[in-house]
Amino acid sequence: xxxxxxxxxxxxxxxxxxxxxxxxxxxxxxxxxxxxxxxxxxxxxxxxxxxxxxxxxxxxxxxxxxxxxxxxxxxxxxxxxxxxxxxxxxxxxxxxxxxxxxxxxxxxxxxxxxxxxxxxxxxxxxxxxxxxxxxxxxxxxxxxxxxxxxxxxxxxxxxxxxxxxxxxxxxxxxxxxxxxxxxxxxxxxxxxxxxxxxxxxxxxxxxxxxxxxxxxxxxxxxxxxxxxxxxxxxxxxxxxxxxxxxxxxxxxxxxxxxxxxxxxxxxxxxxxxxxxxxxxxxxxxxxxxxx
Length: 291
Hints:
Elements: E1 7-14, E2 21-23, E3 26-31, E4 36-40, E5 46-50, E6 59-62, E7 68-72, E8 77-82, E9 85-91, E10 100-105, E11 111-115, E12 129-134, E13 140-147, E14 150-156, E15 161-166, E16 171-177, E17 183-191, E18 201-202, E19 208-211, E20 217-221, E21 227-232, E22 236-243, E23 249-255, H1 259-263, E24 269-275
Antiparallel strand pairs: 1-24, 2-3, 3-4, 4-5, 6-7, 7-8, 8-9, 10-11, 11-12, 12-13, 14-15, 15-16, 16-17, 18-19, 19-20, 20-21, 22-23, 23-24
């Protein structure tokens, strides 16, 4: 792969690394098709924290107490990782219509997760679906409807706004958030000009870094659609995360092969880094992960 100036290979040997999260001085990353959870130190050294995860563990996050939450996409469950054991936090198998997708957690420990809306792997036609809110007690409600393949999401404006990537529509969609977590006032946040957004992240100035699965780009987008920065990769850009000691390292998960290569478990996935001007929304002075 040709690497742009200023972009550095961080780690490779992955199949399909989704939902990278920076916490406790490390990057945490599930490999969807290898069913493993990695902890990657600042030098790019990988440690397998959990293996033999439930089928397609395609997203992780942390609640307000530092406990890891993990999605089993195929089982349609949100799991808590307690002392290395997976405990069901919320079961959406009777609610969601298909595989679960990416999610975001708010400061209270509520999470918002979407589902595919149709059987993507069987080639069913695209359709609209829901974004669900999982409360801190594990109860599930429909937070929003009429979204198409809701994917990565971020919470910005001091918690007042949620923005979700609608992959096939090629847009970022925003909602107002009430103090109880409910969503309203659905609106266009940014048209991405034909790019299919995947796992997004936000910075302290409201800029959203968007990996485009179909073009291989990772772009920084402002409300209204203005693109301020662009990093190009060969292949598919999957997800990104701001982190590092000062919150100004952008981690980009990329797959350099085809979908068929990925399904054949070819290890063509890697994470690259780039230094950026604006830091993540918050750099916590002390963070502890409970595993």
